[in-house]
Amino acid sequence: MNLTTEHHGDVAVVRVQEARMLYPILPDFASTVSGLVQQGQRKVLIDLTPVTYLDSASIGCLVDLYRQVTGAGGTLKLSGLQKRVETMLTMTNTQKIIEVHPDAASALASFGG
Fold it and tell me: Which of 27, 31, 35, 101 is the most buried (most CB within 10 A)?
């Protein structure tokens, strides 16, 4: 999976660089975020700006990662949702579980200090 990880203060930003987030590429994505949590990262932002489609396995993966991060005492947020992705998250009520921001800048600001 094509993704990048960068740090802005104490927030790790994982940027997905794929148009379609589907099951075959999820293990790399999940292991990247899980690895950050295992290394002690407690504030994680997943930027999905280029993603125009995700499947049910991807939604399940996001919810699982949310549980991992919050279970470790952290916070996971999403940013940059395209309309179709936002619709999928709304239909599955995922946006009621995981905080969503229109862009990375507003999400980073929401983490505070």
Answer: 101
Torsion sign (Cα): 88, 53, 107, 62 = positive
In terms of pTM, does the model score above 0.90?
yes
* 3-8 and 20-21 beta bridge pairing: unpaired
Please tell me whether residue 90 adopts helix, strand or coil conformation.
Answer: helix
* pLDDT given at position 112: 83
- Write the burial class of residue 96 (CB in 10 Å: 0-12 exposed, 13-18 middle, 19+ buried): exposed
Q: Among all chains, which residue has been given the structure tokens 């997905």?
A: 16
95: DSSP letter: G
Contact 44, 11 (CB under 8 A): yes
**Which three-class secondary structure state does DSSP give residue 103?**
coil
Q: What share of the chain is helix, strand, coil (3-state, %, to 5)?
A: 45, 25, 30
pLDDT in tens, 39-51: 999 999 999 999 9
